[in-house]
Amino acid sequence: MRISVPGRICLFGEHSDWAGTYRRINGEIAPGAAIITGTNQGVHAEVSAHPSKLVVKATLNDGTRLPEWSVEMNPEALLAAAAEGGFFSYMAGVAYQVLVSHNVCGLVIDNYLTDLPVKKGLSSSAAVCVLVARAFNRIYDLKLTTRGEMELAYQGEVTTPSRCGRMDQGCAYGQRPILMSFNGDRIDVRELQSVGDIYMVIVDLNAEKDTRTILNSLNHCYPFAQSELAKRVQHYLGELNRRTIDEAVRLLGIGDAAALGALMTETQRLFDEYVAPACPAELTAPALHRLLSHPPLQSLIYGGKGVGSQGDGTAQLIVRSQEAQEEVARIVEQDLNMTALSLTIRGGTRVRKAVIPAAGFGTRLFPATKMVKKELFPVVGADGRARPVILAIVEEAMAAGIEEVAILVQPRDRETFRELFTPPTPEHYNKLPKADQKYCDSLVALGQRITILTQEVQEGFGHAVYCAREWVGREPFLLLLGDHLYTSDIELSCARQVIDTFTYTGSSAVGLMTAPGSQVCHYGCVGGSWREGERGRVLDISQFAEKPTIEYAREHLPIEGLSPDTFMTLFGIYVLKPEIFDLLGESIKHNIRESGEFQLTTCLERLRRHDGFVGVFVQGQRHDVGLPQAYVESVQSFSRTPITTN
After folding, report:
1. Cα angle at 310 between 307 and 315, to 5 degrees?
2. Tens digits of per-residue pLDDT, 390-402?
3. What number of other Cβ atoms are within 10 A of residue 232's Cβ?
């Protein structure tokens, strides 16, 4: 499989990672905090298993291919290779940490492309370490979370002569910004989200700095401040940094690029005032300040600051638009003889489309479904209005902010479903009460956002989803079951809860609910561990299992905090990345079936291994209308629950 890991840039909070660790010695030191994000460039590799060795084929960022390197997968050989230092030592260090903690064999890593600048404050070595940790995790299905990969990469890098900071391996979280907090040995990670795109330019100042001298000088200010200068350094990296981070989190949340740029400029000013005097030879930084004050740039940027340990290494600028990125890069390279690259912090990817499969035969409701599709069975909402099941599901999607819905039906049922959204005859319309006429008008308007797709042959849930691939395109989409109703216990609809989790985490997401062990054989189930700070709500999924036995669930699917013989099952709402269509296509091409059909759950497991997957415990209920008794109970429950409009 192919894996890519970006570099990382620290937007705010440089030096606070190591400063915060001094709380182990001096509890009066404030915890550290930093906001980092991945770059558009990174380390890219194709990886596969090897029976006994770690084999690396590496490409430098200038395109040079290094001779193949390998080492035996045993602790002594890996430790020796890690101690040598250099590019391959990082890979050996991580492999050593994996080997002593997990039952693995070897790995072949073909690093076919490195477009990440090295030694420019972008943590290229950390990206390499995360890549190796991720490769072992996915090839051997170690079921590590992103946090687990990050920690393993850190342990691997410190096995080498490198002394990286604790924020470096945050590149494991990809190109979305994260907030990292450092309190002694404890590290907390929270993913952030910008509502809009933030355009930046990263500048290699093409000058020189001595990072070791900078760090040595600043470390002399810790753990106890022995001078006024040391107190000022601790104040900047403590209280002042915390204020900056809190404000930056707020500004990212509202997508205020202008204010973020101004905050960067102010942060640089404070750094120059409080910290630079501790190492004036390196932190006076004439090249950095020549860039930040260059007159032709001022109308194109909102602000900027130094990167990493500061000094004349790398700088970051927040620019006014995507077009300004190109102009700033041109000016930087032409006027200042510096090197520029673009970085864009993307706002949350919006989920615009929903897919509802409704092409089954409804055999469990025979003979009623011989006359009426189960998706057209009537239900009564708490508003007292009778509506077909499919309309209730469409309204669930629309309440979650969906713009377009595709309903998958059998070819012969196309006009039947379309009829729901077409105007009645004038005679029928005129007999409706005014309230119903108004609702009828809204149905017709809703029909403009409905597409009826056909599934020519019924070959399973996975096949039905695959039939929507061209309509969905290459964007994430909401998937709802055609024979389930959903009612929320909170203001947010059930579908909105899953969409928000996708937006927040950047990973494909599925709704979850608990079920007793006696029922797991009827459902798709998951295993995993709660995300830090999200216990009881967001689960990093480590395994999908389709209708497991109770014995299998007890051994492989227990989840911390659930009562004995209680497990997490699929709620019936998904937000999936478009890569699911590639995996479904492979199953169909190679005729990989289960019980004679193309299933979705198997491909969800493959998507999880390639890209990660989260589950959210939905605060609400699902109502199955696909079984006779369940339909009766669902009609009763649904009619008592208020219709959610959020």
Report:
1. 40
2. 999 999 999 898 9
3. 18
